[in-house]
Fold these 2 entries.
Entry 1:
Amino acid sequence: MFTGFDLDVIQRSFVYLFRDGMTFTLTLTAIAMAGGIVFGTLLAMMRLSSFRLLAAAAGAYVNLMRSLPLVLVIFWFYFLVPWIGGWLIGASGTVKVGAFLSSAITFTMFEAAYYCEIMRAGIQSIPRGQVAAGQALGLNYWQTMGLVVLPQAFRNMVPVLLTQTIILFQDTSLVYVISVTDFLGAASKVANRDGRLVEMYLFAALVYFIVSFTASQYVRSLQSRIAVIR
Amino acid sequence: MISLNNVSKWYGGFQVLADCSTEVAKGEVVVVCGPSGSGKSTLIKCVNGLEPFQKGEIVVDGIAVGDPRTDLPKLRARVGMVFQHFELFPHMSVLRNLTLAQVKVLGRSEAEARDKGLKLLERVGLTEHRDKYPGNLSGGQQQRVAIARALCMDPIAMLFDEPTSALDPEMINEVLDVMVQLAKEGMTMMVVTHEMGFARKVAHRVIFMDAGRIVEDAQKEEFFGTPRSERAQLFLSKILHH
Amino acid sequence: MKYNWNWGILLDLEPGGSGVYLQYLLVGLGWTLTVALAAWVIALMLGALIGTLRTAPNRWLSRLCTAYVELFRNIPLLVQMFLWYFVLPELLPRALGDWIKQLPPPWGSYVPAVLCLALYTSVRVAEQVRAGIQSLPRGQMMAGTAMGLTLPQTYRYVVLPMTFRIILPPLTSEFLNCIKNSSVALTIGVMELTARARAMQEFSFQVFEAFTAATLIYLATNILVVFAMRVVERKVRVPGYISAGGAPQAGH
């Protein structure tokens, strides 16, 4: 029965929630964003390359990741990574992989598929004349991509990449299904320990809202300032 | 310097170039003209390997462009190209546009590249714009920077693909002046253009193309005086009254 | 400790006795689709309304809808699920709250899951509808009004029919997202496909067989939905109109 708000529970658990929970969430988001964008850009270049096998493989990976629920992918990597780790170091079974590493790998690999599609659109939006100009000066493929195409593609896609990162930030809450203590997990632990589900979950919702909303407002203001003048 | 022998090219089933043969000697300025869709831009893009071709051969300074063993980036570094839409790199300053390929392809030091870049920028009359970005420059200024960018590579020949077609009329002359100066200094040039005034002034030969074929290939005086083909006569009569 | 492959596990009886594992998983698919479809129907109606209202000339109305959209977009789906399942019954008047808590399983989990997913998805549908409406040439509205149609009539007969055709492709991917998002309901006890794959893994220890089966079922469902939507698109296509509407998308 609801006996009235007990805001004290939030105050008492504040440090735990933010020092343990939120740092996990933010670190995971940062790593998955960095890794995801790097791997995603690579996937995009593979998809756009003229080597059919490379393009098909990258396409298959991206389509697979985009067709599956994140919850299922989390379970997949949770069970798969220890086996792959064991195979890599030649052990006969599984290697114990910590919760953080498993989550980091999962989210990097999953989000890379989404970052790939964003970068692919970005690369394709650069006029072919730019590539021709780079080639005419004698730049080879990697130089043309690295010095001419990708810098421009990135600049143009920064708002969309950031929006995807905000979504990633919200998605990290799903590590709950493998009992990892991120911000939501921490809130849940406190809620169940102290019997204060209402306050804790409302507080968690509020925090997520403030972070996401502020970030998306920032992205909106960035959009107008960043376009490369053509 | 540049020789094309029976070059043919198809886009799928459609033939864009049919048996094109011609030569450009060292120091010669050749103008290529013709109606839209005649294949003149495609032809010039085949010379530095930007476009592949299926039949025939193209040799630039002794190097076969169509040979799969040819190091194309190396060849392209020696042949300068100027595009219709300038294609300066918008995310780099003017100076960086000039030094990038010098450093990354020719291996020059940053200082060396800067010096060269500034010298050529002065030659095209744009020294004070060196730290600006292409977006801040007018079309004519961008195209002059593009010419300087190509010249920074110390090319043996220069290819121009309709360099003034995208410019407002008032800016065409500033670009043509640079090109005329270049021709007078003895640069080997192959220029796709509609600017017949330029052709009359500095071209040695004029090539007329129609529907993928070289229809007329004559010395300047002959071309403008008594062109042999009816098609060329028709073309000339339509454009010379501007 | 090597992994023992046993694909035959799919044809073994599951501990609950309801059938073989494959059947068990397919029933899960049934729950996935039931949740997703129920949520989708609500989301479509609500989303169309809100998306339309956001383009309405009345500033207060569009501001209200913008607030609604921002609220549901900035809270993770899982957190919203918890709010519906744990928090809402506590905040409602005593009688209503108690009644909800008394709902027998599976309905006690099913109803909050559907409502949560419906509102979450309605926001995404609203964004697509809004983008679609705004991509129509302004002349369409003007033509409707010039003929004497009222604003609601113009929307009903001119704007919305075209909008929905334009946004069919992005709506298809929103529907697929809805199906994927239904998996989050496992946290509040809905035994849909992913939940059952997890259960199968726990009972049988055949991790990869269980999850591979679930993966293949999701992929097959995906392909079927895309195929079906293509048929629908072809049937409602307006001759000569190349659609380029829909909001540019990040996310999933």
Entry 2:
Amino acid sequence: MMQKTRPLSLPMGEIAVARENGVLRTLLGSCLGLALYDRRLKVAALAHIVLPDSLGRSATPGKYADTAVPEMIRHMQELVETERLRLHAKIAGGANMFTSADAGNTIGVQNVQAIEVILERLRIPIIARHCGGEQGRRMTIDTATGAVTIDIVGAATETL
Amino acid sequence: MPKRGGTHADIARTEPVLTDQQLTALTTLFRHGSDDASLALSRWLSRPSQVSIEQVEQVPLSEATDVLGHADDAVCFCAMTLSGLVTGELILSFDDASGLALADLLLGNRIGTATRWGEIEQSAALETANIIGCAYLNTLARCFPEKDAQSPELVPSPPKFSRDFPEALMEFALMNQAMASDTVFLTRTEFRIEGAPVNCNLLFVPDAQCLATLREMLPG
């Protein structure tokens, strides 16, 4: 039996990649979690996206939707070398805990919209999503299967 | 083997929002606030209690969500959104055991009586947040640099009770600052009741607009 590595936890604005037996996870509030996965090559990437548009800033590519996606694909391609990636996406997050904080909600919605446009342009289908609400989420992707699980305090675990 | 996507070097290059001199001035200001919060908590609990500044800090965004730890267990918190003179979030957070013990103290019950967050326990927590938060904020408002007759009042919203993952709570609170900078500012306090430490935190997280005002107002 193959032994699993410990889950790698991502902080805000970062990206991680793993192949075959990795587990990646992140805690999301208003931010958006984007998981990309290649079923055949069993390679996954996870990003904790904070904002939709980098406006030309390149120092922290994982923080912005427009820079995170190409950076994720670049890291995944490095892992599989010359193999061709065939990706699908799952997204989660974009909650609004502080009801008076309209900006948080707006940013959450804008992040989702930005990712939808970017992924459509790259022909990467979003096959599952778990967005909105008032509570945070723990998003975990298992690279062996591509299963994404969502944990919310006080609720049963959901698998996407 | 999982690996992170190489952003550490970039994060290390981000600039702090406030200078050391401004941080020192703010620490003094927050100490006044925590002194008044100590008085209010002591009266509220009818026991000697202390709320003291633990940290006034600027940290990279990627580290800021760890402030309350990154345990899998949920934390409870009462959050007040601030508008007017000071804008941002004031959050009283605690683990279940500490929060329920606090509720027992307030309700005159033996510690360990409350085992779940019912309406009365939540109400006790919310009222505690209200009392500590307002004492802290009133002092901040009085001491706020260059406050004059034209300055808007500081208006806290009624506190809201929730339970969530600690990192998710911090992400919600820091979202506004994260929109403006890769470095975030926050201040936290520690609690003692009758000399014993209590696992509670009072977090003040100003928003980006408030930080910009502080940067302009404070010498440094």
